[in-house]
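Q: Is it fine to ask for two folds in a single conversation?
A: Yes, each is treated on its own. Send the first.
Q: Here.
A: Result:
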Amino acid sequence: MEIKPIKNDKDHAAALREIERLWGATMGSPESDRLDVMVTLAEAYERTRFPIDVPDPIEAIKFRLEQQGADTKALVGVIGNRTRVYEVLRRDRPLSLQMIRRLHEQLHIPAEVLIRPSRKRKRKIAA
C-alpha cells in the first residue's frame, strides 16, 4: 500500500477521490485499512489548511439560545439576574468562572469556547 503525505490541494483532491472509492470497504480488509489511513491524512491536512476559529463566547451563547428556541430570559439564573444577563450580553461584564460552569452544564456550550475573551463591543463615537 503506497501512501504519500498530503502536501497541497492537488494531493488533497486525489486523497478525497481515493476515500470516495474506498468508502464502504469491508471492515478488516486491506481496503478498509487504506481508507482509515487516507481519512486520517485528509483530516490532518484539513485542520492545518482550513482551520476553524473558536466562536466568540457571547455569539456562542446567543446561537445556543436560538437553537433551543429560547430567549435571553432563559439565561436568568444561569448567568445571574436579568441585569447581569444584559451586562454580559452587551459585553459590559465578562463571564465569571461560575457563569462558565453553569453555561457549560446547562446549555452544553463547550467550556473551551466560553473561557475565551469575548470581542469588545464597538463604542459609538459622538458626533
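Q: Second one now.
A: Result:
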Amino acid sequence: MLTCRYHPVAAMSPSDFAKPPADVSPPETGLADSPSVAEPAVPWSRFVQLFTAVMLPIFLAAVDQTLLATATPAIARDLGDLHDSAWIAVGYLLSSTIMAPLYGRLGDRYGRRDALVAALGLFAVGSIACMASQGMWWLIASRMLQGLGGGGLMVMTQALIGEVVPPRQRARFQAYFGMVFVLASVAGPVVGGLVVSRFSWRWLFAVNLPLSAIAAWRVLRLPRSPRHAVPGQSHDALGVVLFAGMAGLALLWLTLAGHRFPWVSPPSLAMAGVAILLGSLLVRRERSQTHPFLPLELLRIPAIAWTSLTVMLFAASMFALVFFLPVYLQLGKHGNAAHAGLLLLPLTAGLVVGSNLTGRLVAHTGRPDQPPRLGLLLAALALFVLGLLPGGSWSVGVLGVIAGLGFGTVMPTSQLVIQTVAGRTRLGAAAATISLARSVGASVGTAVFGALVFGLASTAELQAALRGGSDQATLQVIHAFHLTFMAAGALTLVASWSSTRVPRIEL
C-alpha cells in the first residue's frame, strides 16, 4: 500500500512515530492526497502527453528569468542607464511574483489548463512590447507586462503535473520537469550571450512568439481540467492591490537606497514606511478573508512554511549568481557575452545532474525533505570560494558545477513536499505558494545583490569597466562582485539551516 505520511517532527515525541498516520485527520495535516489504497501507475504514454505539453511553458517561464543576464551590458550600451539595468530582471520577477497566487486561485476555480493558455497569451503580448522597446524604462515596463503572463506559466504547469501524477510517482517524474527548469534557467544566459554576440538582443524576445504559439497548441490538446470552485469565493482584488504596492515599493527601496539616496534619508524612510504600512494592511486584510488572495492557510502548515522559506532563500542566492556572474565576467574580466554565457554551462550541468540524482534518490527513499540539507551546504561552500579566488575560467567552471549540484537538490523536492502536504484539491494554491516563494526570493535577491554591487562600485567605475577602461576601476568592480558572492554564500547557509526545520515527509 502506498501512503503519503507527513510527520510534524517538532510537535511529536519519539513514541508518537509508532502511531499510525491514519489517526491524524486530513484537515489537521493537510494530507488530502493520502490514499487508502495504492494509486494506479501513470501510463508512460500519458506522461509523455503531459510532458510534451508543459515542457515549453516550463522552459519559457524559467529561461525568461535569466535570459538577459549576459545581454545586460549590450542593452545598457544601446539604451543607456546601466544602474537601473537590474530592473530588467527585477521588473519581470516582481510582476510574476504578484500574479503567482492569483493564477493559483484562478486555476483551481476555473481550470488549470485554460489558465495556462491565458498566461501564455499574456506572455506573448509582453514579448512583443519588449521587442519594440526604445528606452530602458520602456523595456522595464514591457518586462513587467511579460511577467504578468510569466507568473502563471510555472504555477499552472506544476498544478497540472500534480493533477495527473500521484504523489509517490511524482518523485520519479519530477526529475524530468526539474531538469527542464534548471536547464532553462541557466541556459538563458548562454543563449542570450550567443545571440547578442551575433545578432540584436531584440531577437531574444522575438523567439518567444512561435514558442508560445506551439506551447498553447500542445496545452489545448490536454483534457479540460476539473474545477474546484468554492461557494462564495471572491478574487480579493484589494488584497492583490495591497500586495502589488507593498512588493513594488519594497523592491524599489532595496534597489535605489544606498546609491540613489542614503539609507537614512527622507525618501528612503518614506518608501520603507509605506511598504511596511501596506504589508500590515495586507496581513490584516488576508486574515479576515474567508478565501484570501495569499494562500495563508497553507503557510500555517509547518512543512509548507519552512519549505517556502528555504526556496525563497535558495532562489535569492541562485538567481543572484546566474544574473550577476555573467556581468562580473564581462565587466571584471573583460570577456564577451558569448564567453560569459558559456562559462555558465558548468553550472547548468551541475543543476541538471543534481536534479536528476535527487529525483532518483527520493524515488528510492521516499524522503523529499532530506537532500536540500546537504546540497545547500555544498552550494554555500562553492559561493564562498568563488568570492575568495581570482576567478579564472577553470575556477569559475569547477565551482559552477559544485554550486549546481547543491542547488539542484531544491526544486524537485520542494514541489513534492508542498503538493503532498497540500492535497489534490489545493494543487493550484500549492504550486502558487512555491512559485511565490521562488519569485520573491529571486526578486529580492536580484535587487539586494544588485544594490550591493552598485553601492560598492561607483557609476564612474562601472562605466569605465563597461568600456574596458582603467585597471583601478576594474579592481574595484571585481572587489564588489566578490563581496556579493560571499554574501550569497552566507544566505545559502541560512537556507540550509531552514531546510533542516522541514518536518519529516514520507511519500
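Q: Anything structural to flag on that second result?
A: Two points. The chain has two domains: 43-224+293-506, 236-286. Residues 236-286 form one domain.
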